[in-house]
């Protein structure tokens, strides 16, 4: 008999004052699931340790992040590579520590969720978190590295493109005519 050993990963949400707020803690644990792909592998992830912000303040590379978000939304893989490189170069040139880098990556992940829900208001946020999590567990590239982020952003751009196509098909099924861009714009207006 062959016994397969499986690794167990625990995700611990934010501490809550009473049981009536347990849903908030569960939501934090779900967020950790997506973040863990961009962290060092551990057996237990505590929300309060992974998402803490120091009193020194943290810098957000907003311009680089916004450019990266736009290129992912446009699904231009060459531009995505360039935008990821610029984002990592900016973080490096600013001498960012792990905490600041994590905040920037977390901001990017939350914006990705927002982008997907803009494409299709019927999209399931749990599905998006699952996609982020699954993408981050593929082997061969160091998690959180520039190469990992590049691959992930290209895959996410493909995912957003698929969402747009589904939106257009739904509009077509309901008898709405017009260009794809126009249909999606009307759907999200």
Can you walk me through this structure?
This protein has 189 residues and is mainly alpha-helical. Helix content is 63%, strand content 3%. The protein is built from eight helices and two strands. The chain has a two-stranded parallel sheet. α1 packs parallel to α6, α5 packs across α6 and α5 runs parallel beside α7. The radius of gyration is 19 Å and the shape is globular.
Strand order of the largest sheet: 1-2
Gross morphology: globular
Q: Find the structural class using helix and strand composition.
A: mainly alpha
Strand/helix succession: EHEHHHHHHH
Mean of residue pLDDT values: 76
Largest sheet: 2 strands, parallel
What proportion of the residues is helical, as a percent range? Answer: 55-70%
Total strands: the figure is 2
Q: What is the helix tally? A: 8
Question: What distinguishing features does this structure have?
Answer:
single chain; about 190 residues; two-stranded parallel sheet; 8 helices; about 5% strand
Summarize the structure.
By secondary structure, the protein is mostly helical. The chain has a two-stranded parallel sheet. The chain is 63% helix and 3% strand.
């Amino acid at each position: 008999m062959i016994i397969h050993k499986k690794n167990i990963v625990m995700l611990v949400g934010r501490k809550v004052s009473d049981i009536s707020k347990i849903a908030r803690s569960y939501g934090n644990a779900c967020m950790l699931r997506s973040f863990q792909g961009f962290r060092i592998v551990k057996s237990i992830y505590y929300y309060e340790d992974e998402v803490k912000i120091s009193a020194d303040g943290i810098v957000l590379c907003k311009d680089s992040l916004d450019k990266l978000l736009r290129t992912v939304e446009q699904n231009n893989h060459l531009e995505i590579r360039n935008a990821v490189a610029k984002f990592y170069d900016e973080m490096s040139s600013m001498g960012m520590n792990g905490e600041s880098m994590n905040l920037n990556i977390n901001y990017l992940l939350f914006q990705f969720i927002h982008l997907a829900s803009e494409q299709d208001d019927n999209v399931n946020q749990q599905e998006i978190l699952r996609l982020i999590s699954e993408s981050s567990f593929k082997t061969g590239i160091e998690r959180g590295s520039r190469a990992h982020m590049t691959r992930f952003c290209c895959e996410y751009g493909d995912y957003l493109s698929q969402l747009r196509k589904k939106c257009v098909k739904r509009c077509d099924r309901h008898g709405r005519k017009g260009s794809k861009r126009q249909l999606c714009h009307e759907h999200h207006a």
